[in-house]
Amino acid sequence: MLKSLFLFITLLIVVIGSINLFSAEKPDLELFEGKLKNMGGEWFIISDGDFFQLALAPEDFLLENNVVLTPKEPLKAEGVIVDEVISVFRIHTNDSIIELRDISGNPLWQEDKQIGHYKINPKMCIGCKLCVSVCPTDAISMVHGRAVINADKCIDCGICENGNGDYQGCPTNAIKKQE
Ligand code: SF4
Ligand code: SF4
Which ligand 2 atom is the nearest neighbour of the CA of 157? Predict the structure, then answer.
């Protein structure tokens, strides 16, 4: 009797542990819906009065899945906010849901196609233009007074964020590398 009880308790602990492990990996996805805006090659969404940059997928991947972004059409997407950037997991179209990331947040496109991991938080940028002048590939431009990185030109050198000796890096820490 005692042996069965011990076995039952052990089994219960293992099951609860597995459930916790699984749920810890599962992010709470939020639904965002709003107008799109393209600034310097990057997409932003205005959702419930807030303005967020979108971390989507490479254009090729979006086109392969018949996702065409345009400021004329509102976007409905699920994702999580990381440093004021929405990491998009799913895009809702009229007749389907397109998956961009798996439930753990891993991209569903070829990783080697992903370039340009640095993003600028538009709410923290004060428009000083310091990062624009130090970028070696002219990847940063000013759009409506805020700096925006063109991911296609960015080589991930990190100078805009950390500096290069002369430049001390973004004064407001608005630039962050997205993993
Ligand atoms: S250095 Fe920072 S605050 Fe200045 S323009 Fe660039 S991102 Fe904005
Ligand atoms: S990481 Fe380097 S290449 Fe990319 S935007 Fe910053 S300075 Fe330019």
Answer: 2
Give SS3 for 164: coil
Instruction: List the CATH number of the domain containing 93.
Output: 2.40.50.140
CATH number, domain with residue 134: 3.30.70.20
Q: Are residues 124 and 169 in the same domain?
A: yes
Say how far apart CA 136 and CA 8 lie, in whole Å: 63
Note the pLDDT tens digit of each residue in 121-157: 888 999 999 999 999 999 998 887 889 888 888 889 9
Looking at the CA of 163, which ligand is closest?
2
Q: Which two tokens stand for residue 136?
A: 């070696």
User: Considering its fold, how many domains does the chain have in total?
Assistant: 2
Q: Indicate which residue's Cα is closest to atom 2 of ligand 2.
A: 157
